[in-house]
Design brief:
The protein is built from 16 helices and 12 strands. The protein is α+β, with helices and mostly antiparallel strands. The chain has 4 domains: 33 residues; 331 residues, no CATH class; 38 residues; 68 residues, no CATH class.
Amino acid sequence: MGAFRTVVGTTARALKAAGRFVEGLMAFPGIDLIDPQDSNFRRLSQGPKDLPAMEQDKMLSLAYYLWRGNPLARRFIEIDKDFVLGDGFTVTSDQEDIAKVLEDFWTDPINRWPLTIEQRIRDLAIDGEVCWPVFTNEITGKVRLGYLDPRSIARVEADPDNATMPLLVTTKSGADLAERKYRCVLQGKPEELLAQRGLALWGQGTDGECFYYRINSVSNATRGSSDLEPNIDHLDQFDRLHFDTADRVGFLNAFLWHVQIKGATEPALAKWRSEHAAPPKAGSVRVSSEEETWTAVNPDLKTGDVHELVRMVRLLLGAGAGIPDHWISEGQATRASAKEMNDPPFKRLKTRQAFWKSIITDVCAYALEKAREPKPGVQGPLAGVVDAEGNVTIPPPVEEAEAVVLPLRKAFTVQESPITTRDFATAATTLQTTTNATSQAVADKIMTKQEARLLLVQAATEMGVDLPPELPEIAEDPGPSPEMRKLVQDAMDQNRQPAPDEEEAPRPTNGNGKPGQNLEALTEALVMAIARQQPIINVHAPTGVAPQGGDE
């Protein structure tokens, strides 16, 4: 016991002396043992626009905390997710083998894209980045995706020669976890995309490949940031404002009884207080003389400006999230103004939806590439479908048409759900007006057909119809067939007016004894023309020859 006290005493004296030493050093100007900028130091692998590692982790934790506990923060995330996802994404292909591989990848019991894509979109919005390790069957080429929590990412390293291209994701190491390094999936051959330094960095990923995507970052930043990051402090302030207002309302509902007794002395008041220590119960009866007056007193906390304060903070949050007022229960917008305010957020949401469409395209193209060659030298189920150059032959939609050869990345289509419901009545009116105007402009030779078509394509786009901007190749009109020409010519000969020196030949009548057109021949000619879908030539008499009269 004595030895223990000796050790403790010695340690205490050493700490006390060290404390005096530190105090002495800090007394000298220019000597600071704690650098106030310590938290701002970055790793050499971090970009100059990245948050420090501790701040990045703090941002991720706060964003998730706000999504869990702040109704407005959750609304911001869910609004964007609902619009971006809509009715879902679909992946299709006209090539049967490719369509089967994509269907297996899309509905795989681990991937389950129809079920998990909602969570994936939400994760990207909350964390600002997603990382999916890739697991590929080296025999069948089947691809499955995992999930790596952004909080477990130690750093993301970009191409030394191209800061926009992430190449290596390194995880944190701990007591139970070893450091792992993942190569970022490249959309192409590494030797064609990277220089020597980039190849060397990318080759350090010995633990497999991963998909890594980030948002809300600049070109030379390696990490993303949450959609909630600009509003984190204001969302916390909004929370405190609501709780403080609720507490204030509780005070407003409180009151006390003020009893005034005229002419009472201090002993009399003390006696009265002892007899009426408990306040009267609700609904009870009190009887007093005119010398005793009871008054209920409420606090006057001047709360008239609370509503405007709450509205001001809410509008600030909506502006920071890019969401108009009427989307967050702010009812001061009219129908006309609300429609005009919808355009900017819809543009922003379409941009995010296009980003997700590109992500899905990358992942599906990778799944197809692995189905062609799971690993170097091993042929997968698509080995006979995709050639050595990575091209696919798509069968023609019509038997007479020629097959189309496309790169593997373009051999399928990712279709997103429309962000907004189109106003077809307005779009149809616009299309009709544009058609009339362009037709007249082309007729007046103040606009070319190609320029007119570009305007019509723009109008058709508003109705959700995608048309190529180029003029289609229209086959030259072959004209009527020889048989059709003979039939019509015979009918015209029967109605021809004879020349003055030519003897008039007998002509058939039209059924009432009057000479007229050979209706039977004309009708037959017209029926045949319609049946054969051939142009109908002019059946009137030649210029300068008046037709014979007859019944119409």
